[in-house]
Structure formats: structure tokens, C-alpha cells
Design a protein that fits this description.
alpha/beta, eight-stranded mixed β-sheet, 47% helix, 15% strand, globular
Length: 418
């Protein structure tokens, strides 16, 4: 446990200094010997980041003066998280953290802080409840923005951000239906339920290679909310389709599972685009993969218009923070406006590639107005003569799919070129 604590503390320090969690964590996981240890490290890192606002509040209250040793601070946060949110034996958590802290005053301080946390837990819970950034474990500016933009739902959005994300699969309709696959899961000892037209959510996450038919392409891992994209785009056989910003390829695969189309998968990152090819290979599907910037079609477009375009644009990822918990601590208020400006440029560029009568599905995994309805309304104002907004199913309301226990947060707007 001591090695795990030190590894987790080091990861948190790197990530909060600006390193990408999805790059740092896989490297550190390889230093552990067993799948159990690797899973525990991932759970502690993700959990600590989800609850970081509360951990900061608690640690501040437990210290008589600000801590001058950042590494010790991260170690204490990890240990406090384990005491508060895991089933690890308290005596083992404290013992290993005290040992890992080092010698002298560091050892004594670690012991005092963790023992006091156990004794003062009720008092500390009340303290956190009175401080929004601790209660909701999100930055104050983020909370305030949600209160303004989602006055009826802001608490639910924040609560969803603290949950462990659901483990959801997309059933490949070319190889069977949801009912059939649920039966296969049951026979394999994996309880699950249907959560979408092609979606099943397991009660407990498992290794994908242990899932019936995964390696043969019968199912893919994809959030139920993300699965709306291919359904809303509704590409028809023979159509020419562009999946812009396609990596890692979940939506690409879903589009091709639903219809035989001439699909171009575009992404600016060649390494990430290689993951699209890996996913298509497993699914036994084909697409034309192009490395290019959706904002600059002149560099890669062949001049032939597309019947349908999926514009899954870069965004704040504020709807998927439970899967990417570092994001909420690294984002700054001004980042939202920068994303919105980038999205507007990309939307204009992609609109030029759409055939008359064609449809473009604008999609984000954000819950912020500037990136969603604000962006679309501004676009429709600029294109009053050649764009209309098509209605969506009632469950999507104004296009917003707010995060909850069943799915992440997304936004969709279906635009047709008149």
C-alpha cells in the first residue's frame, strides 16, 4: 500500500502541475505487479481528483500552518481519501502513509494529521458542507456558472460529476440485438440492464477482453449518451459521410454499424487516428482515415460535398468530468470562450463541405451554454438564409443531455442546409 500511496501522490502532483492524466497514469500503472494493485491505483487517483475540493478543505483544517512540502501534501490527500472513501483498513492506511512520509517532522506530522482526521471526521464533514468548492468538489467559478445556466439542474450536474461513471457497452446491430446480448452477459455472470437503443450497462466494470464477443467486434465500450450521435445523424446507405474530430472512433464505428456509407474519419492527431483504425479493424468495418484539421478543409478535402457531417467539436469536456476528473481543476474561466471561438471557426468551415439538403450534427460533451445552445443560436443567426434546426427526440429537450447515473453529459443540434 505504501508504494501505491506514493505513486498516487506523485501522479496527482504531476497532473495538477499540468500533465495529462491519460498519459501519466498508464506509465505509473506499469510499475505495479498485479491487476489488483493497478486497479487500486487507478481508483485512488481518479477518486482523489473527483473529491479534491473536499480533500483540500479537510487538509487545510487539519494543518496549523500551510504545508511547505508539496509531496507530503499530496501523500496526505491520498491517505485521507483512502480513509474517507475506500474499504482499506484504517490502521494500514495510516501506518503506510506515516512510513512513506519519511523521517523526522514529516513522519510525526503525517501521523498527527491522519489520526486527527479520524477523530474529527464529523466536524470536518460539516466544515466541507459549508464551503461550496468542498461540498461539490468543483471550482467556485464552475459552480457559479452552472447555477446561472442550469438553475433547476445544477446540483444534479455536480453530483453526477462525483459519481463513478457507468460501464456501458454498445451492441453491434450487425451481430445481434440488445436482448440477445443481455442473455449472453447473464450466462457469463455479468448482470446488466438496457440503457439505450443499442446500450447495455453492466452492474460492475470488467476487463473488456472478458466480455462475450468483444474481441470479435460484437460490442464496444461507449457511454449511452454518446450513442445518440449516430442515431441522430441517421446516415443512410450509400451516403457520403464525414466524421470530423473522429478519434478515438466510437462514433465512427457506430455510424458504420448502422449503415453501409462512404465514411471519412478525420482527426488532426495521427496517433489518435491510429486508434480509430484499431477499433474499425476489431469491428471488421472500413472507412477512409484522413489526418487533417477540420478548421482548414482546403488542406485535405477533395472538393466533393458530404451528405452528412458529424461535427463532434473540441470542447471543455465539462459533461464528462467524472471520467476526466483532472479537467475541472485545470480549466480556467477564460478557456470556455476560447473553446467557443474555436468551435465557431470549425462549424463555419465544415458547413461549406455540406451538400444542399444535407444535415450536420453539432455535438459536444459540454454542459456550458457558450459551447452549446449559444453557439448554435449564433450560427443560425449568421446563416438565416441557408440553415434550419431540425427537431430532436423529446428526451433531448433543447439538445442538452445532462449527466446522471445512466450517462454522461452531451449536447446535440441537428442542422440542415436549405
Amino acid at each position: 500500500m505504501r508504494n501505491l500511496q506514493k505513486l498516487a501522490a506523485g501522479i496527482l502532483e504531476e497532473v495538477l502541475a499540468g500533465a495529462a492524466l491519460h498519459q501519466v497514469l498508464p506509465q505509473r500503472v506499469q510499475q505495479l505487479q498485479t491487476p489488483g494493485e493497478r486497479g487500486a491505483l487507478q481508483d485512488v487517483v481518479y477518486g482523489s481528483l473527483r473529491q479534491l475540493g473536499r480533500l483540500d478543505c479537510w487538509l487545510e483544517a487539519l494543518l496549523e500552518r500551510p504545508l511547505t512540502d508539496p509531496q507530503l501534501g499530496w501523500l496526505l490527500r491520498v491517505a485521507i481519501y483512502q480513509l474517507a472513501y475506500t474499504r482499506a483498513p484504517a490502521h494500514a492506511v495510516v501506518h503506510n502513509a506515516v512510513t512513506a512520509a519519511g523521517e523526522g517532522w514529516r513522519r510525526g506530522l503525517a501521523n498527527a494529521v491522519l489520526r486527527n482526521f479520524q477523530r474529527r471526521r464529523a466536524e470536518l464533514d460539516q466544515l466541507a458542507a459549508d464551503r461550496p468548492s468542498a461540498r461539490w468538489s468543483h471550482p467556485d467559478w464552475w459552480i457559479a456558472k452552472l447555477q446561472t445556466q442550469h438553475p433547476e439542474h445544477w446540483q444534479g450536474i455536480l453530483e453526477a460529476g462525483l459519481m463513478h461513471p457507468p460501464f456501458t457497452l454498445r451492441v453491434n446491430a450487425r451481430h445481434g440485438d440488445v436482448a440477445e446480448y443481455l442473455q449472453r452477459l447473464s450466462e457469463a455472470g455479468h448482470p446488466a440492464r438496457q440503457t439505450g437503443a443499442d446500450a447495455v450497462t453492466l452492474d460492475k466494470a470488467v476487463s473488456v477482453h472478458g466480455l462475450p464477443g468483444f474481441d470479435e467486434g460484437r460490442v464496444s465500450v461507449q457511454d449511452a449518451g454518446a450513442q445518440w450521435a449516430a442515431r441522430l445523424l441517421d446516415a443512410q446507405p450509400g451516403e457520403r459521410v464525414l466524421d470530423a474530430c473522429a478519434a478515438p472512433g466510437g462514433k465512427t464505428g457506430h455510424i458504420l454499424e448502422r449503415a453501409d456509407v462512404e465514411l471519412t474519419a478525420l482527426d488532426v492527431d495521427a496517433v489518435r487516428l491510429a486508434r480509430v483504425q484499431e477499433n474499425l479493424d476489431r469491428l471488421h468495418l472500413r472507412a477512409s482515415l484522413v489526418v487533417g484539421d477540420a478548421s482548414n478543409p482546403e488542406a485535405w478535402w477533395d472538393g466533393q460535398p458530404f451528405d452528412r457531417i458529424l461535427a463532434d467539436v473540441p470542447c471543455s469536456a465539462s459533461g464528462v468530468v467524472r471520467r476526466n476528473p483532472d479537467i475541472k481543476w485545470l480549466r480556467r474561466p477564460e478557456d470556455i470562450a476560447q473553446f467557443a471561438a474555436q468551435q465557431a471557426v470549425m462549424l463555419e468551415a465544415l458547413w461549406r463541405l455540406l451538400a444542399p439538403g444535407g444535415t450536420l450534427l453539432y455535438a459536444t460533451c459540454s454542459v456550458f451554454h457558450e459551447e452549446n445552445d449559444g453557439q448554435v443560436q449564433a450560427f443560425l443567426t449568421r446563416h438565416a438564409d441557408d440553415a434550419v434546426r431540425r427537431p430532436l427526440p423529446e428526451v433531448l429537450s433543447n439538445g442538452s443531455l445532462l449527466p446522471d447515473a445512466e450517462h454522461d453529459g452531451f449536447y446535440y443540434a441537428l442542422l440542415q442546409k436549405t
